[in-house]
Fold this protein.
Amino acid sequence: MITIQGKGVSTGIGMGPLYFYRRAKTEIPNYTVEDTNAEWLRFKGAQSVAIDQLGELAEKARVEAGDEAAADEEAGDDAAAGEDDLGGDVELDIEL
């Protein structure tokens, strides 16, 4: 049985197209890396790019929505920059 939920505009009447959403199944490959130092540098490079992009997003939020919105974005910057949060886990995975 399919249950469809939505916000009713007119009680008892439903009109319009119906769309079904199917989440794509994503497989993440698991492989062995020969050069762990190169893989670590590749990760750190990607992390730096992400941190730069988050900084640009914070600046854009500051301009468009004010300092409060930018503070929320900067919290994301701090989380992305935290090597202890993510970098350590990735480093362990690379070394395994």
